[in-house]
Each structure stands twice: as structure tokens, then as C-alpha cells.
Amino acid sequence: MITIGSVVKARYKTGSYIGKVKEERGKFFLVEILAVLKHPQQGDLHNPKQTEDVFFHERRALAHHEKANIQKTAVSLYEEDVPDYSDSLQTALEQLQQTLHNEPASPYQQLALANLASLKKDYFG
């Protein structure tokens, strides 16, 4: 059972995070982000992998200690050790880059990889 103070895995948009439940808000939990499991996909959430006639968003991972309202249905208990935020962010970013490198070349792949390269500079200097 998830209660205030529980460490959880939380899916938010196209990312996945480890966090701590701070409040219960009806159908949502307010979750403080502690680590990144999966970096968000780049581009338009409503038109995945599309580049034409859409606004191609740069999607950042939620920041360390950022709080997000996350639907209860997207939250589950997390019972493993919580990794360091910066290390987890770097691992998640590199996993997404590797996944994109393994896909056939496409305009989406090129734009997404460019966004991730820019984010990597921004995140880590």
C-alpha cells in the first residue's frame, strides 16, 4: 500500500522516475523526484515519432527534488536502492540515445538525437 513517505516508481508522460510520495491529492500523488529510470521521449506526445506539421518539443527529465502530480494508476512501490539522481539521469539519457541509434535513420531520429545532445550539454555542462 502506498502512503505518504513511500518510495515509488512513477510514470509521467513518457518518462519514468523514482520518487517519494509527499501528499495524496484525490486521484493523484504529489511525488518528489529522486532519480530517473527512463528519459522522456522527444517530440510531440500526441504524434509520436512525427516531425512534419507538429511542434517538435525538447522534453527534459523532471529535475532532482521537483514535485509532480502523478496519477495514482501510474505509481507503484519501489523497493530497490535509489540511485544517485545525476548518475540515473545520465544512464537514462544514454539508454534513450542508444535506442535511437539502433533505429533506422529518419527525420525523427535525427531531431531527437539533436535534442538529446543539447540536453546532455545542458544537464552536465
From TrEMBL:
Keyword line: Kinase, Transferase
Keyword Transferase recorded: yes
Domain of life of the source: Bacteria
Signal peptide residues on this chain, from the entry's feature table: none
SUPFAM superfamilies listed in its UniProt record: Kinase-associated protein B-like
InterPro entries according to UniProt: KapB, KapB_sf
Pfam families noted in UniProt: KapB
Molecular-function GO term, any one: kinase activity
Keyword Nucleotide-binding part of the UniProt annotation: no
Protein's name in the database: Kinase-associated protein B
